[in-house]
Structure formats: structure tokens, C-alpha cells
Design brief:
13% strand; 6 helices; five-stranded parallel beta sheet; globular; Rossmann fold; 128 residues; alpha/beta
């Protein structure tokens, strides 16, 4: 079954740390022919936390995941989310942009951090 997924940073970090569930999840989605997307915010987070010696595996991972840049529609939606959820749910700008990317591109958001995404207008999936 083909589906389109926006992969959150936590899933990719688990993958880089060779966490079995993350490896299995991404392998299964690739085998299914799912379209995998990555917010440029997540890309920055991965680069910021990259350990010495992970450069090649990170580059390889980024080659198979489609990057999504921030445009004005995503920025506007992120601002709306921040206005609605920053106080009640301690929403930060990175998670607001990731959620807005999922919303504007009509992607399912794959994350383990369900509490970071209280929005009802996006589809959030906890893969493991």
C-alpha cells in the first residue's frame, strides 16, 4: 500500500542509532513503496545532533527521503498553530512547522512524540 509520510526527527534519530523498531518501520515503508518526506526543520535537527562518523549514513538517509522546504503557506499555518497551541501545549516553532508541513502537503506525520502534535487537522501516526 502506497502512502505518503512526513517522517519526524525522532524516528530518524532512532534509525541512526540502529533502533530495531525504527529500522523495521522505515524498511517496511520503503518496501511498500511509500513516499517518504522530511521537513527541512528535521533535516537541521539531524545535522545538529549528528555524531562523528555518521556523515555517510546521514547523507544516504537524506538521499532516499524527499525534503520539503518551508513556503508561505506552511509558515502561515505554523503561525496559526503557535497562536493556538504554544501556551496550552508548549508548542515550539520547529514542531509547529513540521505539523504545518504535514497539514499543507496532506501527509501523514510519523512520530513517537504524539504530545507535540495536538492538532486535529493532521493525521499523526505512532509507528512503534
Amino acid at each position: 500500500m502506497h502512502r505518503s509520510l512526513l517522517i519526524d526527527s525522532d524516528i530518524l534519530i532512532d534509525h541512526l542509532r540502529k533502533e530495531k523498531n525504527a529500522l523495521n518501520f522505515l524498511d517496511t515503508e520503503i518496501e511498500r513503496g511509500s513516499h517518504l518526506f522530511l521537513s527541512v526543520i528535521s533535516r537541521a535537527e539531524i545535522y545538529a545532533g549528528m555524531r562523528n562518523g555518521e556523515e555517510n549514513i546521514v547523507s544516504g538517509l537524506f538521499e532516499i527521503i524527499i525534503p520539503v522546504t518551508i513556503d508561505t503557506a506552511i509558515a502561515d499555518k505554523a503561525g496559526e498553530y503557535l497562536r493556538r497551541f504554544s501556551k496550552s501545549h508548549n508548542l515550539n516553532i520547529g514542531d509547529a512547522i513540521i505539523a504545518a508541513t504535514a497539514s499543507e502537503m496532506e501527509l501523514n506525520l510519523a512520530t513517537r512524540n504524539l504530545k507535540h502534535y495536538p492538532m486535529k487537522d493532521i493525521s499523526v501516526l505512532r509507528p512503534y
